[in-house]
Amino acid sequence: PFHANALALQGAALTQQQKYAEAEPLLVEAAQLMLSIKNAPVQRRRWTLEQLVRLYEVWGKPTEAEKWRGR
């Protein structure tokens, strides 16, 4: 989960800087990793997914946000 966490943190920082295209692959990879790691901390998994949903919301991609919401 450490690699996924690092990706998520970097992606969240890029989202804050409105560098959405740069943030997307990092957050998608982080989310996929968190979902694949059975012992990933629930709160960290939730935060990672929330960051990806937030990216898509602020980027104006509600359909993409919906795909990840509630996973």
Cα distance spanning the termini: 17 Å
Mean pLDDT: 96
Query: How many strands appear in the DSSP assignment?
Result: 0
Q: Please outline the major beta sheet.
A: none
User: How much is the radius of gyration in Å?
Assistant: 11 Å
The count of helical stretches stands at 4
- Indicate the percent of residues in helices: over 70%
- Backbone structural class: mainly alpha
- Tertiary shape: globular
- Could you state the order of secondary-structure elements as H and E? HHHH
Low-confidence spans? none
Strand content: under 5%
Describe this structure in words.
The protein has 71 residues and is mainly α. It is 79% helix and 0% strand. The protein contains four helices and no strands. Helix 2 runs antiparallel to helix 3 and helix 3 runs antiparallel to helix 4. The longest helix has 17 residues. The radius of gyration is 11 Å and the shape is globular. The model has no long low-confidence stretch (mean pLDDT 96).
Name a few traits of the molecule:
mainly alpha; globular; 71 residues
Topology:
Layout: H1 2-16, H2 20-36, H3 42-58, H4 62-68
Helix pairs in contact: 1-2, 1-3, 2-3, 3-4
